[in-house]
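User: Continuing from earlier, I have the next pair ready.

Assistant: Great, send them over.

User: Here they are, in order.

Assistant: Folding the first of the pair now:
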Amino acid sequence: MQLLFLGLSAFLVGFSGAMMPGPLLTATIGEAMRRGWLAGPLIALGHAILEIAVLLLVVWGLGRYLEERLVIGILGLVGGAVLLWMGWGMMRGAVQAVDRMNGMMASTKVDVRGPIRVGILTSLSNPYFTLWWATIGLNYAATALQQGTLGLGAFYIGHISADFVWYTFVSVAVASGRRWCSPVIQKWIIILCGLLLILLGLWFFRAGILVWL
């Protein structure tokens, strides 16, 4: 019963976080416009791969270092730069992406590495992702460890399940709706998503600089 409660509470907390607007949601919308509904679960998979690595590092004692001002500043600068790069790439490739979606260019195969890589990079470039793990995630992990390895597993499964449910829902909704969008509207939606990533990147970059002042 305790494991079930731990998993359900992790799901609810994770779901509330997943639904908040941010780089991962923006990237999911953009990738779903380009690649279809599979973009959501694949991005969530990339996010989950990174999260299990961060969870292990936090459990092994890294958590206390993630709250240092120096670390937060570096994460803001590096994360902002990565989001700027990703946003610019999304905007620059909008026309080619729309052409692919409408069958005017290559292939019916989905390169799964693309969305998985986006899930990892978008999460890694968000300093608030790391800060969440250093605070809320650290406390959850400590509570889960009281139930042993099974407790930690229940927490992790509950947490990532929220991401898979939400981002799959978003990508299915976006991919279904794109049939009703003209290529011009599709192009501008992708450009808007890229612009939002750039704005978020600038915000994180600014936050990283302010830490040093």
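And the other member of the pair:
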Amino acid sequence: MLYTGGKDSTFAVHRAVESGLEVSVLVSIIPHYNYSLLYHKPSFEALKCQAHALGIPLETAGLCDERNEVQALYTTLRRVKDVYGVKTLVLGAIKSKYQLRLFSEVANALQLEVYAPLWGVAEEDYLNRLLDYGLEFALISIASMGIPMSLLGKVLSREDVAMLKNLSLKYGFNISFEGGDAETLVLNAPLFKYRVSLRGYTRVISEYEGYYEIVKCGLVKKQSSNF
């Protein structure tokens, strides 16, 4: 499972489990630079908490040179295939043909099947569908005009989603945040055995770029399982 800790990859984990796949390992490529076209830039500490909450091993690789983005994925997937016996690469891709093509090419080179359960999802209702499913996710970065910086670090509610749908019509950002308009971090989901807690601060670069910088994250016991 190619995992970023965001809403799409977390939902894809759930869909994979529902389809009968055993998700044996989470794989995260972490770029140490901004504005990667291929990868999100997840928090390593948050990823560790999420992996523990899911009860699934985590394998990561740091990346310092954007020219090596595809090679880093190939090397990492080859390693996890050998160690965990992986046969299928699960993706959280929704509509980025660029990402799907490159990830599929690497998977094919390693003789891995590709499972992209969210591909082509109806984006206008997608965020509400995630809330219906039981995902709780916060905005941790914004890279588009029109998305309020006040939402950084906030767990999105249905009221927030309704507001964002109206703003997306006005400003043209993608309501599912595909393409990097915004990035999310999942704090709770049906398969999580613990809830992730965050502490951090907001860093606003401009009126269309801002980040929630994570200072500390931890795990909190859940009252009961929802799955």
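Worth noting for the second one:
The two ends are 20 Å apart (CA to CA). The mean pLDDT is 94.
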